[in-house]
Structures are given as structure tokens and as C-alpha cells.
Amino acid sequence: KMALKLTDHTFEARTECMRRNFKGPWFIMLHMPWCGHCQEMMPIMDVLARDLDGEIKLGTVNLEDNPAVAHRFRKLIGGYPTLFVLDQGKLYAYAGTRDLIELTNFCRGGFRSNKQDAIAPVPPDPATLEPWVRAKEAVEDFVESVKTGYAGIWRDYRKQLLAAISTAFSLGGIFGFFAKAAIDMALPPLPRETRKVIKRRLVSKAPAKEM
Length: 211
Hints:
Low-confidence stretches: none
Shape: elongated
Order of helices and strands: EHEHEHEEHEHH
Strand content: 5-15%
Mean pLDDT: 79
Radius of gyration: 34 Å
């Protein structure tokens, strides 16, 4: 027995989480293939699927390949893996450790003891939304991504600015050193006596100041 791999096309049909004839809770893991913690969680999901067979169904979703599911649960995702139970139209977020006993207790009904801020209605299936709602969500996602991006830029700009200035001065100093060395090799300095003669000639040719 293994956790079922769900996709954009099978998530709603398999879980039936928005239907009146809901057939029992699901424990869902949203993950990314590059996430090390997600890879560690995969065999635990399979153990839970075996040990809890008949009590709760388990499913995993690779969000890299399933953008519709990622969009649907975007407000819940704060890191990976994201774990939650779907039951009777409600979503119960899991915030514990990846300890097998703790996970088992949560799946066996512990989720019903969640604090109120960890319980929310199941987000609707994007395929069922009106076009104007999808457009509104797309705009909200864009604005949020811009805010997040600029927050990161302004948080680190001092460090980046100092690094840029330091690098510029370092590169300028190195370039100046090699440039001076190249000029000295191409145009070696005149002997001291020769410089004195040139200076006297320049002084003698200079026009006298009017009184």
C-alpha cells in the first residue's frame, strides 16, 4: 500500500473534497522534487498509507508538474512539504514534526483538535470558478509576487550596495596598478638631470608678468 500520486486532472475526482458524498478524510502532501525534506517524507507517507489503510486515504502532489493544485492551495503553502487533512469541506493544516507517531495521531483524528486559525474551508477547484474570479486571482497573485520580490530587494539592498562599492574600489585599484605599470614600461621616466633642463627651458620661455 502506497500513498496515491495525485495530479491537476485527478485531484478533485479522487478526493471528492468538494462534494456532498465525501467518502472520508484525506491526508495530503504538497511537495517539490528538489526539496530534501519532501524526499525524506515520501517513505513516511507510504508507511502511513499502509498502517492507516481503511481509516484515512493518503495522497501526494508534485507541484512542479501540477500548477492548478499549486494555485488552489497557494495561500496555505509556506514551505515544503505542506501537509494537511481534507475532511467534510474543511482543511486542517499540519504544523507538527515528521515523527511517525505524531503524524499517525494527527491522521487518526488529532486534526479535529486543531486551533481555529489552522482550520479553513477547502479552496474551490479552479476549474469551477467564473472567468472574472480567475482573472481576479491572477491579478492578486501578480501583485503578491511583486511585493514579495521588492521586499527581498529592499531587505538586502544595503548589503548588496556595500558589496558593489567594495568590489568597484578593489577592481579600480587593481586596474590602476596594472595601468601604471604598463605606462612605466612603455614610457620609462626621464633622468632627473633631463627633467631639470626641460623645466628651466619652460620657465625661460614663459611670458613675463606685466607690472
